[in-house]
Amino acid sequence: MALIDFQTALGRLVRVPDDKNPLRGLNLDTGERLYIEALKENAGFRFSVSIQRSWSIGRAAKSAHLTLSILPDNERRRLLDEWINSGAGTQSFYHAEADSFLDFIMGRLINPSHAHTVCQLEQATLRSSNGTNYFAAPDLFRLNSLECLLGRGRYAGLVRFYAEPGRLLDSLQKHEPIPPLSPEVMTMLFAPGLDQLFRPASIDEVNLWDRLDTPVAVGALLGEGHQQETFEILLNVGAVEYTT
């Protein structure tokens, strides 16, 4: 048995214990397959799996604490189980794992909803705070090229609140009833170059952010009515970045 095949088999058994075919694609003989299959019934191995699963669930829950706190118990457990059963929850890098889990949750929440807003908030806070370790304001001279591509900053986020933000967060922290959804939206920009990592977003900034769901050339953006001043402001704080 090659070491890589043995490690792959063990990894699959630990990460996805319910996998129906954990030995697919591995170069194992009959005896080796029987040995690894028998591990699933070994009490010591099952205990190790349970410890790994508990650790993974705990770390995931920590990364989305506020979002999960707003959900009913059964939905919270379902999301955590679905995440771990997919084989996730084992990355060494906490920020990458937390960001992926928040993405996973966000795709399963009603939008608009306070839960979706809080999930956006946690992800934007995670990204912008992590980005302070890496972000440096870029050279704005590149904007002179109309073919220069702009995209959303990797350490940035835009969060739409359907209630006054302070009131919503205060109700969560005090475990009080959350306010109803409001038709009036308050949009906050998160980026590593902002003094407090966040501030209200202008209408121009929101429109540009929404447009940059994929990279767009400066010339095309100017032709659509977006302003170079907005590009400069957002590049300087890391909310927008040059891309390819």
Features:
Outer Surface Protein A, domain 3; three-stranded antiparallel sheet; single chain; mainly alpha; 244 residues
The helicity comes to 40-55%
Q: What's the mean pLDDT score?
A: 88
Query: Which band does the percent of strand residues land in?
Result: 5-15%
User: What's the arrangement of strands in the largest beta sheet?
Assistant: 5-1-6
Helix/strand/pairing category: mainly alpha
The CA-CA distance between the termini, in Å, is 43 Å
What is the CATH architecture descriptor of the domain at 112-244? Answer: Alpha-Beta Complex
What's the CATH first level of the domain at 112-244? Alpha Beta
CATH overall fold name of the domain at 112-244: Outer Surface Protein A, domain 3
Task: Characterize the largest beta sheet: strand count, sense, and whether it forms a barrel.
Answer: 3 strands, antiparallel
Enumerate the spans where pLDDT stays under 50 for 5 or more consecutive residues: none
Write structural notes for this entry.
52% of the residues lie in helices and 9% in strands. It has helices at residues 3-15, 30-39, 43-63, 65-69, 73-85, 94-106, 114-131, 165-173, 203-211, 218-223, 228-237; strands spanning 149-152, 157-161, 186-190, 198-200, 216-217, 240-243. It is mainly alpha-helical and 244 residues long. α6 runs antiparallel to α7 (114-131). The longest helix is centred in the N-terminal third of the chain and has 21 residues, at 43-63. The mean pLDDT is 88. The chain has a domain at 112-244: Alpha-Beta Complex (Outer Surface Protein A, domain 3), CATH 3.90.930. The strands form two sheets. Strands 5-1-6 form a three-stranded antiparallel sheet. The two termini are 43 Å apart. It is built from eleven helices and six strands. The chain is globular.
